[in-house]
Design a protein that fits this description.
Belongs to the metallo-dependent hydrolases superfamily. Adenosine and AMP deaminases family. Adenine deaminase type 2 subfamily. The chain is of the alpha/beta class. The chain contains 17 helices and 8 strands. The chain has an 8-stranded parallel β-sheet with strand order 1-2-3-4-5-6-7-8. The N and C termini lie close together (11 Å). It binds hypoxanthine and zinc ion (ZN). Zinc ion binds next to strand 1.
């Protein structure tokens, strides 16, 4: 069976940096890393929690210096995503993580955007770009970076909120999200990955987000689940990520199928595929073998992914028709 067409809605571009590319870019840019080879680097990919992952994720970004580096990372992701059935990708990147290292905003944005511009022709993948802001850094810094992105006409369709969740509640970023909304941008936020269900409520009510990234901790609160079902709030769930970061013990314990059966508007995504053991197809295959995800459920996840995207109605209909044709 060929892959069903999917929309990838929860993907950190910097999380697609495969160990081989990390080492290649380190050589190219003369960056010294504390690993002799790919195997040593790969051995560091054992995480206790979100923070232990973030430490390595930010450290590896040291190899990203030039427009070409950002372009190469983006092109490698799109080529791999296309083989997974991804036909549309809403891609997050972390501008602050590069600015604090002294990499200019235009290098980051132009490097990424130059490749996205031809992605439909080159890979058959339409794309939207989402600037994600780091919740463990000050809101004023995020406001400044958002203003700079808007001032230079960066091709972003929305903003997100990521990085260390616990202790950094959504309400800290109310002004940022208000400004992005005024600018006509779409709004998403990570909530309920490690943080409590109340962060999901606040992301909806204080930030006004249209989609929740992760949201699995919502299951601790029945009233919240009822609301999420009633409002059909899109939730982008990342099973391999949750196991890698120990938010969930094993894939067999993952709640995504239960969420689907309870009527939540969930779709499955890959988060940081280079770090967590795989891309969209790998996540779906793993759910098939560990949770017995049925073909019918897989089709529903594909449809949800397209309906939860920020695509215009005509492109959504086109993708839904492709799903129907592929599942006939
Ligand atoms: O999985 C994640 N969670 C929060 N922030 C992140 N930034 C990159 N990946 C992640
Ligand atoms: Zn994420």
């Amino acid at each position: 069976m060929t892959h069903l067409p999917f929309a990838e809605l929860h993907l950190h571009l910097e999380g697609t940096l495969e160990p081989e590319l990390v080492m290649e870019l380190a050589r190219r840019n003369d960056v010294t890393l504390p690993y002799r080879d790919v195997e040593e680097l790969r051995a560091a990919y054992a995480f206790r929690d979100l923070q232990s992952f973030l430490d390595l994720y930010y450290a590896n970004m040291a190899v990203l210096r030039t427009r070409q580096d950002f372009a190469d990372m983006t092109a490698a992701y799109l080529a791999r995503a296309a083989t997974a059935g991804v036909r549309h990708a809403e891609i997050m990147f972390d501008p602050q993580a590069h600015l604090v290292r002294g990499v200019p905003l235009e290098v980051v944005v132009e490097g990424i955007a130059s490749v996205l511009a031809t992605s439909e022709d080159d890979h058959g993948v339409s794309t939207l770009l989402i600037a994600a802001f780091l919740r463990d850094r000050p809101e004023d810094e995020a406001l400044d970076v958002l203003d700079r992105l808007l001032a230079r006409g960066a091709p972003i369709a929305g903003i997100g909120l990521d990085s260390a969740e616990v202790g950094n509640p959504p309400a800290r970023f109310a002004r940022l999200f208000a400004r992005a909304r005024e600018a006509g941008l779409h709004l998403v936020a990570h909530a309920g990955e490690e943080g409590p269900a109340s962060y999901v409520t606040d992301a909806l009510d204080v930030l006004g987000v249209e989609r929740i990234d992760h949201g699995i901790r919502s299951l601790d609160d029945d009233a919240l689940v009822a609301r999420l079902v009633a409002e059909q709030v899109p939730m982008t769930v990342c099973p391999l990520s949750n196991v890698a970061l120990r938010a969930v013990d094993t894939l067999a314990d993952h709640p995504v199928v239960e969420m689907l059966e309870r009527g939540l508007n969930v779709s499955v995504h890959s988060d940081d595929p280079a770090y967590f053991g795989g891309y969209l197809d790998d996540n779906l295959d793993a759910l098939g073998s560990s949770l017995g995800l049925t073909r019918e459920q897989r089709i529903r996840l594909a449809e949800n992914s397209v309906r939860s995207s920020f695509l215009p109605a005509d492109r959504r209909e086109e993708l839904l028709a492709q799903i129907a044709a592929a599942s006939a």
